[in-house]
Fold this sequence. Notes:
By secondary structure, the protein is an alpha/beta fold. It has helices at 11-22, 53-60, 80-101, 138-155, 178-188, 204-217, 233-244, 255-271, 280-286, 295-301, 308-321; strands spanning 2-6, 26-31, 44-47, 65-68, 105-109, 160-165, 167-169, 194-195, 198-203, 223-226, 229-232, 252-253. The strands form 3 sheets. It has a 7-stranded parallel β-sheet, with helices on both faces. Helix 3 (80-101) links the parallel strand 4 (65-68) and strand 5 (105-109).
Amino acid sequence: xxxxxxxxxxxxxxxxxxxxxxxxxxxxxxxxxxxxxxxxxxxxxxxxxxxxxxxxxxxxxxxxxxxxxxxxxxxxxxxxxxxxxxxxxxxxxxxxxxxxxxxxxxxxxxxxxxxxxxxxxxxxxxxxxxxxxxxxxxxxxxxxxxxxxxxxxxxxxxxxxxxxxxxxxxxxxxxxxxxxxxxxxxxxxxxxxxxxxxxxxxxxxxxxxxxxxxxxxxxxxxxxxxxxxxxxxxxxxxxxxxxxxxxxxxxxxxxxxxxxxxxxxxxxxxxxxxxxxxxxxxxxxxxxxxxxxxxxxxxxxxxxxxxxxxxxxxxxxxxxxxxxxxxxxx
Length: 330
């Protein structure tokens, strides 16, 4: 079976490519710029861009399954143009190319952020409505709009399923990801303080496994939340510190102060050519729904997230192998 992966060189893509190759699948990995995550992996790398429909049509020829992971992750309120181009129009192009090329199944990676978080005190499942408010963060709005593109494709005859992972963490994080970079900053002693709130954290390898199950087991049109374990940022830091035997920040900054400091932090990060970690969008996400149910994925696909400490041990072990745990190493 031939499978195609958009966003193959990203964090989730790196784990999915390896899992598919280990299964003996013929993998066609679509890359745009960065190929580091695919070096030494037995897959075919193909230049393509989700913003270029013709490049997708060429890449999807003969594909049985397309895994659509390519996306623009943003924690900035100013990022709508890029988010719309990649997460919305790019998904529209993927859907159209799948239909044009007769792809048997599309597995689309959305996000729990595409769904309305309120009410915060109730369990979130797949029935939550998609984000619509123009005041919502660009990432949330764009992922919701991307889901609607897939639903439109299903209405036009496309066989597709949708996965909504929570906050992804895990090994093979080559760039590294936003949350991988934050974890590195914590264990290197480069983060002076923590913030209140937390996320549901899920292992990238568990998301990849769920995606492969969805490709063969799910009913067309199905949607699955792929969640793991909810921990505060402080609990994450303490666990990481105990694994590495290092001191981590003890001070937890009040959210009001973080909100006030966020614009300055964003401006300072831009001046230094770095990504901002704690923005107003991030603060909002840290206060989101705590209980995100993977009951449907478990019942229908046999999905089972591994213990979070195992994920953190493996992630930090991988970063250590890459020489990234010492301060100043990049």
